[in-house]
Amino acid sequence: xxxxxxxxxxxxxxxxxxxxxxxxxxxxxxxxxxxxxxxxxxxxxxxxxxxxxxxxxxxxxxxxxxxxxxxxxxxxxxxxxxxxxxxxxxxxxxxxxxxxxxxxxxxxxxxxxxxxxxxxxxxxxxxxxxxxxxxxxxxxxxxxxxxxxxxxxxxxxxxxxxxxxxxxxxxxxxxxxxxxxxxxxxxxxxxxxxxxxxxxxxxxxxxxxxxxxxxxxxxxxxxxxxxxxxxxxxxxxxxxxxxxxxxxxxxxxxxxxxxxxxxxxxxxxxxxxxxxxxxxxxxxxxxxxxxxxxxxxxxxxxxxxxxxxxxxxxxxxxxxxxxxxxxxxxxxxxxxxxxxxxxxxxxxxxxxxxxxxxxxxxxxxxxxxxxxxxxxx
Length: 377
Ligand code: SF4
Fold this sequence. Notes:
This protein is mainly alpha-helical. It has helices at residues 3-8, 16-27, 57-70, 84-87, 94-111, 128-136, 142-146, 149-152, 161-175, 189-206, 246-253, 275-283, 291-301, 307-321, 323-333, 336-365, and strands at residues 43-49, 76-82, 118-122, 181-183, 214-216.
């Protein structure tokens, strides 16, 4: 189909920005593959991943599995990016950041992200994001950024401009590809609301450009850490990493906290207050009334199973559940150049979406189109 008809519809009117977009596409067809929404009414799901350290079971159960499952939603384009610019607010060691980028991408690919069905890219490979953030920053008062909880939490310890600007950059992440669905946890809801607010202000001032990005709220999955406190997190040092297996895995799980009232092997336990049992519920087959999980419940309550044996069962089941992940992880880890290539291609595909938006935004705000030579020259 002719590109003009693709943009304007068979009976459409050739509005200036459509013409500019089409010329832009023709000019850049070789360096940027044509990629658009699957059709006009499709959803765009977008989520970012911070580039910090090894992936753990909490990441897998809380996010990665959902990301992989969303690839199968009909009429949905999934964009997943590694938020390396956001990560700079912590000023990580550059070599560590480089390694983490590849490590995170390797993990998500091993978990089943398919670069044919999703767009996986690094935030820094799409310079239009920072350009859009600068433009959108004009629509939000600094006083509102200063009130956000994540800035407030560090305000007394020399918080940087990067941290203050973080929500605007996040708005650009979301609005750039015109995301319609954004998986968020409670802690990120305020930032999504900021993106919704910026989109509304922009549309009111300059005309409809951005769809409203909606929160895709999943039931929160709380994966407890091995230390029995809070949730599994790298900063708390209480994780089961996704590549842990065999005896290494068991040695890590063995000292984990259980029901504190169960002091002796002969004491009956209470699975409901035990972190190990919570982990069993994610990986062990059956329900509380039957199957292997039911046996654990009965064995614990009647003191027929000891905590060490219970942990051994958990490790065996974890090993089984993550076997195919580890296998694919090894394959990708042996081919880091392929992972870099996937990120590179993903960046190119993402840029097509972001550039379309940037052209619309620049035009709406009265800025010249930096991609075309001036007329009459
Ligand atoms: S037997 Fe299992 S469920 Fe019961 S307290 Fe020990 S580790 Fe927890």
